[in-house]
Amino acid sequence: MTRPLALTIGEPAGIGPDITLTAWCERRRSGLPPFYVVADPGFVAARAERLGLRVPIAAVEPQEAADAFATALPVVSLGIDTSAAPARPDGSSAATAIGSIRRAVADVVAGHAAAVVTNPIAKAVLYQAGFTQPGHTEYLADLAAETTGHRPHPVMMLWASELAVVPVTIHMPLRQVFAELTTPLIVETGRIVARDLTRRFGIARPRLALAGLNPHAGEDGTLGEEDQTIVAPAVETLRRDGLLVQGPLPADTLFHAAARAGYDAALCMYHDQALIPIKTVAFEHAVNVTLGLPFVRTSPDHGTAFDIAGTGRAHATSLIAAMRLAARLAKASAPAPILSA
User: Fold this and answer.
1) What is the pLDDT of residues 36-78, one digit of tens each?
2) What is the location of CATH 3.40.718.10 in the chain?
3) CATH number for the domain running over 1-154+293-341
4) Strands (E), the chain
5) Whole-model pTM?
6) CATH superfamily of 162-281
Protein backbone atom coordinates (compact mmCIF):
# COMPACT_ATOMS: atom_id res chain seq x y z
CA MET A 1 0.00 0.00 0.00
CA THR A 2 1.31 3.45 -0.92
CA ARG A 3 1.63 5.65 2.12
CA PRO A 4 0.64 9.23 1.29
CA LEU A 5 2.22 12.40 2.61
CA ALA A 6 0.41 14.13 5.48
CA LEU A 7 0.07 17.83 4.69
CA THR A 8 -0.91 20.36 7.36
CA ILE A 9 -3.21 23.23 6.49
CA GLY A 10 -1.02 25.83 8.24
CA GLU A 11 -2.57 29.20 9.08
CA PRO A 12 -6.01 28.95 7.45
CA ALA A 13 -6.15 32.69 6.75
CA GLY A 14 -2.89 32.51 4.80
CA ILE A 15 -1.94 30.96 1.47
CA GLY A 16 -1.59 27.41 2.80
CA PRO A 17 -5.07 26.40 1.60
CA ASP A 18 -4.49 28.14 -1.74
CA ILE A 19 -1.21 26.41 -2.57
CA THR A 20 -2.53 23.07 -1.34
CA LEU A 21 -5.39 23.28 -3.82
CA THR A 22 -3.05 24.47 -6.58
CA ALA A 23 -0.60 21.66 -5.88
CA TRP A 24 -3.37 19.08 -6.25
CA CYS A 25 -4.42 20.68 -9.55
CA GLU A 26 -0.80 20.39 -10.73
CA ARG A 27 -0.27 16.87 -9.37
CA ARG A 28 0.15 15.16 -12.74
CA ARG A 29 2.33 17.82 -14.36
CA SER A 30 4.53 18.03 -11.26
CA GLY A 31 4.73 14.29 -10.68
CA LEU A 32 3.51 14.64 -7.12
CA PRO A 33 3.12 11.61 -4.85
CA PRO A 34 -0.28 11.08 -3.21
CA PHE A 35 -0.96 13.40 -0.28
CA TYR A 36 -3.81 14.43 1.97
CA VAL A 37 -4.37 17.61 3.95
CA VAL A 38 -5.47 17.64 7.59
CA ALA A 39 -8.19 20.29 7.71
CA ASP A 40 -11.89 21.09 7.81
CA PRO A 41 -13.26 19.66 4.51
CA GLY A 42 -15.92 22.36 4.27
CA PHE A 43 -13.34 25.09 4.73
CA VAL A 44 -11.12 23.67 1.99
CA ALA A 45 -14.10 23.38 -0.37
CA ALA A 46 -15.08 26.99 0.32
CA ARG A 47 -11.56 28.23 -0.41
CA ALA A 48 -11.52 26.29 -3.70
CA GLU A 49 -14.81 27.92 -4.68
CA ARG A 50 -13.47 31.37 -3.80
CA LEU A 51 -10.41 30.73 -5.98
CA GLY A 52 -12.52 29.43 -8.85
CA LEU A 53 -10.84 26.02 -8.74
CA ARG A 54 -12.84 22.94 -9.66
CA VAL A 55 -11.37 20.65 -7.00
CA PRO A 56 -13.51 17.77 -5.73
CA ILE A 57 -13.02 17.21 -2.00
CA ALA A 58 -12.94 13.68 -0.56
CA ALA A 59 -13.29 13.41 3.22
CA VAL A 60 -11.21 10.32 3.99
CA GLU A 61 -9.18 8.48 6.58
CA PRO A 62 -5.42 8.42 5.91
CA GLN A 63 -5.53 4.81 4.70
CA GLU A 64 -8.01 5.84 1.96
CA ALA A 65 -6.12 8.91 0.74
CA ALA A 66 -3.89 7.28 -1.88
CA ASP A 67 -6.85 5.70 -3.66
CA ALA A 68 -8.85 8.94 -3.64
CA PHE A 69 -5.96 11.16 -4.75
CA ALA A 70 -6.32 10.70 -8.51
CA THR A 71 -9.83 12.12 -8.68
CA ALA A 72 -10.21 14.31 -5.57
CA LEU A 73 -8.19 16.18 -2.97
CA PRO A 74 -8.20 13.92 0.09
CA VAL A 75 -8.97 15.78 3.33
CA VAL A 76 -8.64 14.13 6.73
CA SER A 77 -11.04 15.97 9.01
CA LEU A 78 -9.72 17.67 12.13
CA GLY A 79 -13.13 17.85 13.71
CA ILE A 80 -12.72 21.62 14.01
CA ASP A 81 -14.95 24.11 12.19
CA THR A 82 -12.55 26.55 10.55
CA SER A 83 -13.96 29.99 9.81
CA ALA A 84 -10.95 32.23 9.11
CA ALA A 85 -11.28 34.33 5.96
CA PRO A 86 -8.28 35.10 3.75
CA ALA A 87 -5.95 37.57 5.52
CA ARG A 88 -8.25 37.58 8.56
CA PRO A 89 -7.17 35.07 11.23
CA ASP A 90 -9.88 34.43 13.81
CA GLY A 91 -10.56 32.31 16.87
CA SER A 92 -10.39 29.11 14.82
CA SER A 93 -6.96 29.82 13.36
CA ALA A 94 -4.65 28.63 16.15
CA ALA A 95 -6.67 25.51 16.98
CA THR A 96 -6.76 24.56 13.31
CA ALA A 97 -3.04 25.11 12.73
CA ILE A 98 -1.89 23.33 15.89
CA GLY A 99 -4.39 20.49 15.57
CA SER A 100 -3.35 19.88 11.98
CA ILE A 101 0.31 19.54 12.97
CA ARG A 102 -0.46 17.18 15.83
CA ARG A 103 -2.64 14.93 13.66
CA ALA A 104 -0.14 14.83 10.78
CA VAL A 105 2.69 13.81 13.10
CA ALA A 106 0.50 11.19 14.79
CA ASP A 107 -0.40 9.71 11.41
CA VAL A 108 3.26 9.40 10.40
CA VAL A 109 4.24 7.89 13.75
CA ALA A 110 1.37 5.39 13.41
CA GLY A 111 2.59 4.40 9.94
CA HIS A 112 -0.42 5.79 8.07
CA ALA A 113 1.61 8.48 6.27
CA ALA A 114 5.15 8.58 4.91
CA ALA A 115 6.19 12.08 6.00
CA VAL A 116 4.92 15.39 7.33
CA VAL A 117 4.79 18.45 5.07
CA THR A 118 3.79 21.64 6.84
CA ASN A 119 2.15 24.70 5.36
CA PRO A 120 3.20 28.09 6.79
CA ILE A 121 1.92 29.17 10.21
CA ALA A 122 1.45 32.68 11.61
CA LYS A 123 3.48 32.67 14.81
CA ALA A 124 1.94 35.87 16.13
CA VAL A 125 -1.53 34.32 15.87
CA LEU A 126 -0.36 31.22 17.73
CA TYR A 127 1.39 33.25 20.43
CA GLN A 128 -1.82 35.17 21.11
CA ALA A 129 -3.53 31.82 21.68
CA GLY A 130 -0.91 30.74 24.22
CA PHE A 131 1.49 28.81 21.98
CA THR A 132 4.85 28.77 23.77
CA GLN A 133 7.28 27.41 21.20
CA PRO A 134 9.30 29.71 18.87
CA GLY A 135 7.97 27.89 15.80
CA HIS A 136 7.34 24.68 13.91
CA THR A 137 10.79 23.20 14.48
CA GLU A 138 10.67 23.28 18.27
CA TYR A 139 7.05 22.12 18.42
CA LEU A 140 7.83 19.12 16.24
CA ALA A 141 10.60 18.18 18.68
CA ASP A 142 8.05 18.29 21.51
CA LEU A 143 5.71 16.02 19.57
CA ALA A 144 8.57 13.62 18.89
CA ALA A 145 9.31 13.56 22.63
CA GLU A 146 5.70 12.63 23.40
CA THR A 147 6.10 9.62 21.14
CA THR A 148 9.60 8.40 22.00
CA GLY A 149 10.18 9.76 25.50
CA HIS A 150 13.31 11.50 24.19
CA ARG A 151 13.35 15.11 23.00
CA PRO A 152 15.56 15.31 19.91
CA HIS A 153 17.64 18.32 19.02
CA PRO A 154 15.88 19.63 15.90
CA VAL A 155 18.01 21.25 13.23
CA MET A 156 16.59 23.49 10.52
CA MET A 157 18.11 23.05 7.09
CA LEU A 158 17.10 25.06 4.03
CA TRP A 159 17.73 22.91 1.00
CA ALA A 160 17.79 23.46 -2.74
CA SER A 161 19.74 21.72 -5.47
CA GLU A 162 22.04 24.76 -5.61
CA LEU A 163 22.69 25.18 -1.88
CA ALA A 164 21.94 23.73 1.56
CA VAL A 165 22.33 25.91 4.66
CA VAL A 166 21.85 25.32 8.39
CA PRO A 167 21.51 28.15 10.92
CA VAL A 168 23.08 26.99 14.19
CA THR A 169 21.10 29.60 16.13
CA ILE A 170 17.69 30.36 14.72
CA HIS A 171 14.93 32.70 15.89
CA MET A 172 16.59 35.10 18.30
CA PRO A 173 17.76 38.73 18.31
CA LEU A 174 21.24 39.16 16.85
CA ARG A 175 22.61 40.43 20.17
CA GLN A 176 21.51 37.16 21.80
CA VAL A 177 23.51 35.04 19.35
CA PHE A 178 26.78 35.90 21.11
CA ALA A 179 25.41 34.47 24.36
CA GLU A 180 23.76 31.38 22.87
CA LEU A 181 26.42 30.26 20.36
CA THR A 182 28.71 27.66 21.95
CA THR A 183 31.18 25.06 20.77
CA PRO A 184 28.99 22.15 22.00
CA LEU A 185 25.97 23.58 20.12
CA ILE A 186 27.94 23.81 16.87
CA VAL A 187 29.33 20.29 17.35
CA GLU A 188 25.92 18.76 18.05
CA THR A 189 24.41 20.56 15.07
CA GLY A 190 27.24 19.43 12.79
CA ARG A 191 26.87 15.81 13.90
CA ILE A 192 23.12 15.81 13.26
CA VAL A 193 23.57 17.43 9.84
CA ALA A 194 26.22 14.89 8.84
CA ARG A 195 24.15 11.93 10.05
CA ASP A 196 20.99 13.02 8.25
CA LEU A 197 22.82 13.94 5.05
CA THR A 198 24.02 10.33 5.06
CA ARG A 199 20.88 8.64 6.36
CA ARG A 200 18.27 10.64 4.49
CA PHE A 201 20.09 12.21 1.52
CA GLY A 202 22.39 9.28 0.77
CA ILE A 203 25.66 11.27 0.89
CA ALA A 204 28.26 8.79 2.11
CA ARG A 205 30.79 11.38 3.35
CA PRO A 206 29.12 14.77 3.72
CA ARG A 207 31.29 17.85 3.35
CA LEU A 208 30.47 20.62 5.83
CA ALA A 209 31.58 24.24 5.66
CA LEU A 210 31.33 26.34 8.82
CA ALA A 211 30.88 30.06 8.39
CA GLY A 212 32.68 32.43 10.71
CA LEU A 213 30.56 34.50 13.06
CA ASN A 214 32.43 37.77 12.55
CA PRO A 215 33.43 39.57 9.34
CA HIS A 216 36.35 37.80 7.64
CA ALA A 217 35.92 34.98 10.21
CA GLY A 218 37.35 37.30 12.85
CA GLU A 219 40.51 38.29 10.91
CA ASP A 220 42.78 36.36 13.33
CA GLY A 221 40.97 37.83 16.31
CA THR A 222 41.18 41.47 15.32
CA LEU A 223 37.46 41.54 14.40
CA GLY A 224 36.26 39.40 17.28
CA GLU A 225 37.64 36.41 19.15
CA GLU A 226 34.58 34.15 18.85
CA ASP A 227 35.77 32.45 15.68
CA GLN A 228 38.98 31.39 17.40
CA THR A 229 37.47 30.46 20.76
CA ILE A 230 34.07 29.00 19.75
CA VAL A 231 33.88 28.07 16.06
CA ALA A 232 37.42 26.76 15.44
CA PRO A 233 37.31 24.30 18.39
CA ALA A 234 34.02 22.94 17.02
CA VAL A 235 35.67 22.38 13.65
CA GLU A 236 38.49 20.44 15.29
CA THR A 237 36.08 18.29 17.31
CA LEU A 238 34.04 17.42 14.21
CA ARG A 239 37.22 16.55 12.34
CA ARG A 240 38.22 14.22 15.18
CA ASP A 241 34.86 12.52 14.63
CA GLY A 242 36.10 11.73 11.13
CA LEU A 243 33.90 14.28 9.38
CA LEU A 244 34.96 16.40 6.42
CA VAL A 245 34.76 19.93 7.78
CA GLN A 246 36.15 23.31 6.68
CA GLY A 247 36.16 26.51 8.70
CA PRO A 248 35.64 28.92 10.10
CA LEU A 249 35.35 30.53 6.67
CA PRO A 250 34.48 34.16 5.82
CA ALA A 251 30.76 34.23 5.13
CA ASP A 252 31.07 36.88 2.43
CA THR A 253 32.90 34.47 0.09
CA LEU A 254 31.14 31.24 1.08
CA PHE A 255 28.11 31.29 -1.20
CA HIS A 256 29.21 32.05 -4.76
CA ALA A 257 28.96 29.18 -7.24
CA ALA A 258 32.58 28.03 -7.10
CA ALA A 259 32.58 28.00 -3.29
CA ARG A 260 29.29 26.07 -3.14
CA ALA A 261 30.84 23.29 -5.21
CA GLY A 262 33.19 22.53 -2.32
CA TYR A 263 30.63 21.49 0.31
CA ASP A 264 27.29 19.73 0.75
CA ALA A 265 25.96 21.99 3.50
CA ALA A 266 27.04 25.26 5.08
CA LEU A 267 26.58 25.71 8.81
CA CYS A 268 25.91 29.35 9.56
CA MET A 269 26.09 30.95 12.97
CA TYR A 270 22.84 32.92 12.87
CA HIS A 271 19.53 33.07 11.03
CA ASP A 272 20.10 35.67 8.31
CA GLN A 273 23.62 34.45 7.57
CA ALA A 274 21.95 31.26 6.30
CA LEU A 275 18.64 32.44 4.91
CA ILE A 276 19.78 35.45 2.89
CA PRO A 277 21.98 33.43 0.51
CA ILE A 278 19.53 30.60 -0.08
CA LYS A 279 16.60 32.94 -0.60
CA THR A 280 18.75 34.84 -3.06
CA VAL A 281 19.71 31.84 -5.16
CA ALA A 282 16.59 29.65 -4.71
CA PHE A 283 13.71 31.78 -3.50
CA GLU A 284 10.99 30.00 -5.47
CA HIS A 285 11.96 26.40 -4.78
CA ALA A 286 13.97 26.17 -1.55
CA VAL A 287 12.63 23.71 1.03
CA ASN A 288 12.76 23.80 4.82
CA VAL A 289 13.82 20.38 6.18
CA THR A 290 13.92 19.53 9.88
CA LEU A 291 16.84 17.23 10.66
CA GLY A 292 17.26 15.20 13.82
CA LEU A 293 13.62 14.07 14.08
CA PRO A 294 12.48 10.43 14.04
CA PHE A 295 10.30 11.24 11.01
CA VAL A 296 10.67 13.24 7.80
CA ARG A 297 9.37 16.81 7.84
CA THR A 298 9.62 19.40 5.09
CA SER A 299 7.97 22.74 4.45
CA PRO A 300 7.91 25.45 1.82
CA ASP A 301 10.45 28.18 2.50
CA HIS A 302 8.04 31.10 2.74
CA GLY A 303 5.43 32.55 5.04
CA THR A 304 1.67 32.94 5.14
CA ALA A 305 1.57 35.84 2.63
CA PHE A 306 -1.66 37.31 4.00
CA ASP A 307 -1.52 40.04 1.35
CA ILE A 308 -2.28 37.58 -1.46
CA ALA A 309 -4.28 34.91 0.39
CA GLY A 310 -7.50 34.05 -1.39
CA THR A 311 -6.55 36.00 -4.53
CA GLY A 312 -5.25 33.16 -6.69
CA ARG A 313 -1.83 34.81 -7.00
CA ALA A 314 0.06 32.43 -4.70
CA HIS A 315 2.43 29.98 -6.38
CA ALA A 316 2.75 26.39 -5.16
CA THR A 317 6.32 25.95 -6.43
CA SER A 318 7.97 25.69 -3.01
CA LEU A 319 5.22 23.48 -1.57
CA ILE A 320 5.51 21.13 -4.55
CA ALA A 321 9.29 21.02 -4.05
CA ALA A 322 8.74 20.28 -0.34
CA MET A 323 6.40 17.39 -1.11
CA ARG A 324 8.69 15.90 -3.72
CA LEU A 325 11.66 16.11 -1.35
CA ALA A 326 9.63 14.62 1.53
CA ALA A 327 8.71 11.62 -0.61
CA ARG A 328 12.33 11.17 -1.66
CA LEU A 329 13.65 11.37 1.90
CA ALA A 330 10.98 9.08 3.31
CA LYS A 331 11.77 6.46 0.69
CA ALA A 332 15.52 6.66 1.32
CA SER A 333 15.52 6.98 5.09
CA ALA A 334 16.86 4.39 7.46
CA PRO A 335 15.25 4.22 10.92
CA ALA A 336 16.12 7.34 12.90
CA PRO A 337 18.68 6.85 15.67
CA ILE A 338 18.26 8.55 19.06
CA LEU A 339 20.89 11.29 19.11
CA SER A 340 22.48 11.95 22.47
CA ALA A 341 23.20 15.46 23.62
Assistant:
1) 999 999 999 999 999 999 999 999 999 999 999 999 999 999 9
2) 1-154+293-341, 162-281
3) 3.40.718.10
4) 5-8, 35-39, 57-59, 73-77, 116-117, 155-159, 164-167, 207-211, 244-249, 265-268, 287-291, 297-300
5) 0.90
6) Isopropylmalate Dehydrogenase (3.40.718.10)
